[in-house]
Design brief:
The chain has 15 helices and 15 strands. 37% of the residues lie in helices and 17% in strands. Strands 7-6-2-8-9-13-12-11-10 form a 9-stranded mixed sheet, with helices on both faces. Strands 1-14-15 form a 3-stranded antiparallel sheet, with no helix packed on it. A 3-stranded antiparallel sheet has the order 3-5-4, with no helix packed on it.
């Protein structure tokens, strides 16, 4: 009988100058930058902030930071991962230069953010154009609208930072408001706009919601300032958006909406006026009847004076999950919630399911936090506003990669942690063949062929411009 004291082979370890490449899968991101024209757009947009004698292009610095965040970084110094691989990522600025560049951009933050947003909109139009029928805005109409989800989140500050404040959950930090476009059940989503706010910013501040939605609309391909987007755009918000000001603004813009609605204190009495046969079975996430949940319209039972004309209120009652606490508006042991919409057509169960899918916004926020939003590493508020814009770029790059290169694989829905483990950290070697650099992805990796297929797809697209 043989005995072993080790579970894994014992290998000798040293450091050596070898052609191995770390994070070789990052070439998926650099190809996405190229095919969408994002790099060139950022270089042009940030040209006014490049000093005449500067070696490094601010657009390249920002793009490098976005790629570093997509690969898993969470601070400026993590761009060193790219600097170590010039054959894949080109010339990357030093940590000191990166820090000075962000500080310089932050001195003119509002104009810089406008420039970055212009570049983002240009790249998004290119990405969606290349996606064709898979694009989020393909063949949209009032019955099949493009969905913009708006939600806020809390970001903890672990040290004193400018504008950090106490939050409503007794924490300390920031309370950003974000808008995302939903790619639907078959895909993921991508950020459109964000507003970094103090930690004590209100949850239901209509002015902030309107600002973010305006910025989100400006990111949509074909959008014209001052034009009404129309019912083919649906804005979904939780109960924080249930204000007169926001709904009036959405109605004036002829936008469709689906927004959480706070029921009055006498809801229990109102619901007793609805016959049991009026309640329609609700649907689950697979469009199947959900046991123990029903929907009904309350519009005619509520005093909606002062609310937008044509607004409907739809309620859902369901058996609460074990341990859930009921509220004053719940009746007969059933949880009751409601939302408001101006959509006229459609079955109640379908409209309620459409609203409940707003929960996918939580996935988008989780992805953003896993791509740098969970750590605002800089002290200055304007510096962290720039950081949030770089987080948006990083998240968009990943989403566009999935949209254009991974659309026929389950990887279309992978979140950052899985993408990094399986694709972005692929082992490879880099060799020079003639006048070309050749990146050999290790065939032993289970996902090397998937990455190779995605790269070839990206390179088959015509060069932008």
């Amino acid at each position: 009988m043989s005995h072993t004291t080790r579970l894994y082979p014992r290998v000798h370890v040293d450091t050596a100058d070898v052609p191995a490449v770390g994070h070789a899968g990052g070439v998926l991101l650099t190809e996405t930058v190229a095919v969408t024209g994002l790099g060139r757009a950022l270089s042009q947009a940030l040209a006014p902030w490049r000093k005449p004698t500067a070696v490094h292009d601010p657009g390249k610095v920002v793009t490098d930071l976005a790629i570093a965040l997509a690969l898993g970084g969470d601070c400026l110094a993590d761009v060193g991962v790219l600097r170590a691989e010039p054959g894949v990522y080109g010339l990357v600025a030093s940590d000191a230069t990166v820090s000075r560049t962000i500080a310089a951009l932050a001195t003119d933050a509002t104009r810089v953010l406008g420039a970055i947003n212009t570049a983002r909109a240009s790249a998004r139009a290119a990405a969606w154009g290349l996606a064709g029928q898979r694009a989020p805005d393909h063949d949209i109409n009032a019955n099949k609208p493009l969905v913009i989800d708006v939600d806020a989140t809390l970001v903890t500050a672990h040290s004193e930072k400018e504008a950090a404040a106490a939050t409503f959950k007794r924490g300390f930090g920031f309370h950003p408001l974000e808008a995302f476009v939903d790619h639907g059940q078959a895909g993921t989503g991508e950020p459109l706009a964000g507003l970094l706010r103090k930690g004590n910013a209100g949850s239901n501040t209509a002015a902030d919601h309107i600002t973010v939605i305006r910025q989100a609309l400006a990111q949509l391909p074909g959008y014209r300032a001052g034009a009404r987007a129309g019912r083919k755009i649906l804005v979904r918000v939780d109960g924080a958006g249930g204000t007169h000001e926001l709904m009036d603004w959405l109605e004036r813009g002829r936008l469709s909406y689906s927004i959480g609605f706070t029921l009055p204190s006498d809801t229990a009495q109102l619901l007793t006026k609805i016959p049991e046969q009026v309640w329609t079975p609700a649907l689950d996430a697979h469009d199947e009847v959900r046991d123990g949940a029903w929907v009904a319209e309350l519009t005619g039972l509520l005093d909606l004076k002062g609310w937008p004309k044509g607004m409907r209120v739809i309620a859902r009652k369901e058996r609460p999950h074990p341990g859930a606490q009921l509220r004053i508006t719940d009746i007969d042991g059933l949880r009751v919630t409601a939302f408001a919409t101006n959509t006229v057509r459609g079955q109640l169960a379908d409209l309620e399911l459409r609203h409940r899918r707003r929960a996918r916004c939580e996935d988008r926020i989780r992805v953003a936090k896993d791509t740098g939003l969970d750590n605002l590493p800089l002290f200055g508020f304007d510096q962290n506003r720039i950081w949030c814009a770089i987080v948006a770029l990083a998240t968009e790059l990943t989403a566009w990669l999935q949209l254009l290169g991974l659309h026929s694989h389950d990887a279309r829905r992978w979140e950052p942690k899985r993408l990094r483990l399986r694709l972005f950290t692929l082992p490879a070697t880099l060799v020079r063949h003639g006048r070309q650099l050749l990146l050999h992805l290790a065939a032993t990796s289970p996902w090397a062929q998937l990455a190779h297929t995605a790269i070839n797809r990206l390179r088959r697209f015509p060069a932008p411009g």
